[in-house]
Amino acid sequence: MQITTRLATFDDISQLNELIALSVRGLSKDYYTPNQIESAIKYVFGVDTQLVIDGTYYVAEIDNNIVGCGGWSKRNTLYGGDQHKEIEDPLLDPKHDAARIRAFFVHPGYARQGVGRHIINVCEATAKQNGFNSFELGATLPGVPLYIAMGYEAIERVDASLPDGEILGILKMRKAI
Known about the structure:
Aminopeptidase, about 30% helix
């Protein structure tokens, strides 16, 4: 099984949003309630088109099938798709700030087969090439074991309060190189 990555395009967005919903529903059920999952899909999870514009969002494919997505950002937002952002996303300074590892989702049928790890390695390498020496992310609970295995440490709990009253457990994590 060979995993390849390419930059996401605007033509991918519809399919990626479907993948994201499938991933969240399939991989989060042991960590969140059904109401939390549906609320998160509605209010938080989705493609952040700024990552596509910046050329920092990747699609993972196996046999030309999209099996995952994820990216890194030189902007301040820690997590969330377009529906979660209300203001312009200011640029970070790689001399002082950590690059953001963002919006990682894997098709449930390909979970725990190296897809997420592959995309993170691509993102970290590219962020390093852009001058960043540390990384931060907002991890949902299903992703925490992968991030710990890749050297990330929990900094603080930053649970998201959603408009319908649901609370989504999120951990802010960091890795320095």
